[in-house]
Every structure is written in structure tokens, then in C-alpha cells.
Amino acid sequence: MDLPEEILAHIFSFLPLQDKCNAFTVCKDWSNIMTHPSSWKDTEVRCETGTSVPDRYSALLPLVRNLKLIMNLTDPANRKTALWVLRQAVASGDGRLEGLSICCVGNTPLFYAGQDLQQGLVDILTNGSSLTMLDLKGVPFTLSDSFVRSVAMLCPALRSLYINNHSLVCGINAETLRQVLKCCRSLNVLGVFQASLSQDVFKDLMLPERPALKKLELRCERSLKYTLPLCDQIWLELKLRHPRLWVELELDHTLPELHVPGVLQPSIPVRCLRLLTWTLLLNEVQIVGESYANTLEVLELQTTASPELNSALIALAKQCVKLQEVHCYCVVSQEVITAFITNCPNLYRYTFKTHKEPHPWTCTKLK
Ligand SMILES: *[C@@H]1O[C@H](CO)[C@@H](O)[C@H](O)[C@H]1NC(C)=O
Ligand SMILES: *[C@@H]1O[C@H](CO)[C@@H](O)[C@H](O)[C@H]1NC(C)=O
Ligand SMILES: *[C@@H]1O[C@H](CO)[C@@H](O)[C@H](O)[C@H]1NC(C)=O
Question: Which one, of 114, 113, 82, lies nearest residue 100 by Cα?
């Protein structure tokens, strides 16, 4: 094989740990390449029943720069293995580990609240870390305030933090979020529950010393019932302070219908919107078309079919011409599909069906 070393290293960087480990033993050339940092840029480690993580990995884990840890939660032994892997990657790695994302698969045991993993991670980070990205979107348990505060304190270099999982309820209050911003001064990408935001959080985000905010991923669910809605004015101010900011909004079926319009404030620079409420969304589709025409690139809808919805979608297609993806999980008319294809030149993926089909609905790719 005569591929240049850099290209091989790039290819190796995508291999899961097991295969990287094997690549070491193939030949001397490959073994050399494996010592190159770029071979370790992204590494996936799976902790699942039946696949133990051999001790010989402990010498390799400190090389990993971005770790994606996938674990099956069903068996407590996997969680122990996962913590062992983390310890090798974090604690003995000369601060090499930059990104960590944790993703859980399998059934979550009854009453399991993830205390062992949250405490274990804090213990592992106890001497501080150079993590710049922490993605906990894939953990199916509620994170505690104290966990998030500890992580923020131990990882002051964080630039991206995601604590917005689908299946979680919001356990993080605004004071905790302010603490996070205080500890992590470079944070510019944040995935949280909208219920964790407050006027004070916005004021902190607008402080002159803060770096340009790039992205907010906001999950809007039932806990918004108990918070004061964020007014349009504060969004406008945030947008003026951070002109490059874009927002991803996801509204789920637990959000009471009457709170939906309060979430869709016109000054939010929404690039991606997922309206997964299963309610009628006629007014909302109209608001989206009027408010987010200049920014919207991805739209997903879970709603109920009707002739009025078809008309509203056709109007939206004419307004939101920057759309790249539209996914609508109810039946629409052929005119709707035509409207999006003719009005949105950047559209490259869509899910529209003109008659009921068994789920899952596959999307159509253009170009
Ligand atoms: C933290 O640092 C101390 C002293 O260097 C060391 O003994 C200890 O094992 C470290 N703890 C972790 C979790 O890395
Ligand atoms: C939340 O966690 C579950 C279980 O690990 C996962 O299936 C789901 O995709 C996660 N949600 C997000 C938004 O990643
Ligand atoms: C998780 O582990 C359980 C039992 O160990 C197994 O039955 C299940 O299929 C696994 N799930 C996944 C998604 O790997």
C-alpha cells in the first residue's frame, strides 16, 4: 500500500479503538503512523456487554484527542469499564483529551439516575482538565446542578458544552448556568434547556469580556411552564451583541400548546427549528415564515395534516428560501413539495409524503 503517511493517519483517525490497536501490530510502517497525533484525533470506544476493553489499551487511551464513549447502560459492569476508559484518557493523558462525548445505548435500569457516572466523571476530572468540548446529549438521565457546577469548575477551558438531552427533564437552574459562564470564560457554544435560561444569564452572555457566542441549542419542554418567558427585546439585544449567533430550537410534545408562541420570539436568529409538538401548527408555521425567513435552514414538523397546513407550508416555502432541509411528518399535498423545490434553491433533503406510509419515513435527497 503506497498511500502517503498523512492520508493513512487521517484514515486511521476514524477507526474505533479496537481497530487502531490492531493497526499497531500489522507492520512497522503502520505502527509508526499510529504514533502520529493525527491518527488519534477522533476515537470511538464502545463499552458493551461482551466486549471487554483490554488492559493493553491503557497505554493508547492517553493518545486520544477526541473521545466518543459509547456504553450500554443495562449492565453495571459496562459503566465501570467506561469509567476506567475515561480515567485512562483523562487522568494520564498530559491534558491531551480535548473533546469528550458520552452516548448511552440499551435500556436504562429502573430508577437509575446516573449518580455513579456523574460522580465518577467528577472524580476523574478532579485534577482539572483541558477539555474544550463536552457533549452529554447522549446520556438519558437528569444531570444535577452540583455535577454541572463541578464540571465547569474543573474544565475552565470548555468552549462547547451540551447538556440538552431529549429524555431528560431540566435539572439545571439559571444560577448554575451563570456559574458555568463564570468558570468557563471561553464558552461560545451551549446546548441547554430553555428553562435554564433567565434574564440574568442573558446579561452575563452580553458582558463585554465574553467571546462571540456562536451557537445556542435550546430544548423547550414542559419545565418552561414554571419559568417567565424570555421577551423579544432581550433576544434582540443578544443578537446585536453577538451578530454571528445562531440558534437551534427544539419544542417537544410535553410543552403545553399555549407556551409555543411565547417560545417563538421573532428576534431569535433561528437556523434550525424542530416543532415536534404533535399539535396543530397553523399559526406557528405562519409565525416561522414571517420571523425566521432570513435565517432558517432546517425545519422539522410533527403535526396534523389539513388543507390549511398545506397553504401555510406553501406560503412558508416562498418566505424561507434559505431552507436546506425540511422534514414534515404528516401527509401534505403535491403542491407543497413543488413549492419547496421551486422556491428553495439550497434544499438538498426533505421528507414529505403525499399519502400515509408505514414509519419510519425516509427522506428524499436532491442533487
Ligand atoms: C491527581 O493528582 C495527584 C497528584 O499528582 C495524583 O496522585 C492523583 O492520582 C491524581 N488524581 C487523578 C484522579 O488523576
Ligand atoms: C438522549 O439519550 C438517549 C439515550 O442515550 C439517546 O437515545 C438520545 O438520542 C439522546 N438525545 C439526544 C438529543 O441526543
Ligand atoms: C445492552 O445490553 C443488554 C444486556 O446486557 C442487551 O440485552 C441489549 O441488547 C444491549 N443493547 C444494546 C443497544 O446494545
Answer: 82
Average pLDDT of the chain?
A: 90
With a 6 Å cutoff on the Cβ, whether 315 touches ligand 3 is no
Task: Read off the pLDDT of residues 141-178 as tens digits, 9 standing for 90 and up.
Answer: 889 999 999 999 999 999 999 999 877 777 789 999 99
Ligand 3 in contact with 103 (CB < 6 A)?
no
How much is the average pLDDT of 14-39? 79
Q: Is 94 in the pocket of ligand 1 (CB under 6 A)?
A: no
CA pair distance 91, 126, nearest whole angstrom: 9
Nearest ligand to residue 50 Cα: 3
In the block, cell 397553523 appears at 282
Tell me the CA–centroid distance for residue 360 and ligand 3, in Å. Answer: 22
pLDDT over threshold 60, residue 1: no
Ligand nearest to the CA of 73: 3
User: Counting atoms of ligand 1 from 1, which one is nearest the CA of 124?
Assistant: 13
Ligand 2 centre from 139 Cα, in Å?
Answer: 6
At 110, list the grid cell: 429502573
Residue-wise pLDDT tens digits, 94-115? 668 999 999 999 888 888 889 9
What is the per-residue pLDDT for 4?
A: 82
Q: Measure CA 21 to chain center.
A: 29
Sorted by sequence, the CB contacts under 8 Å of residue 130 that are 6+ apart come out as: 95, 96, 97, 98, 157
Q: Taking the CA atoms of the chain, what radius of gyration do you get in angstroms?
A: 23
Q: Which three cell numbers stand for residue 209?
A: 469580556
Which of 48, 78, 103, 143 should be mutated for ligand 2, with most atoms under 8 A from CB? Answer: 103
Sign of the Cα pseudo-torsion (142, 148, 151, 156, in order): positive
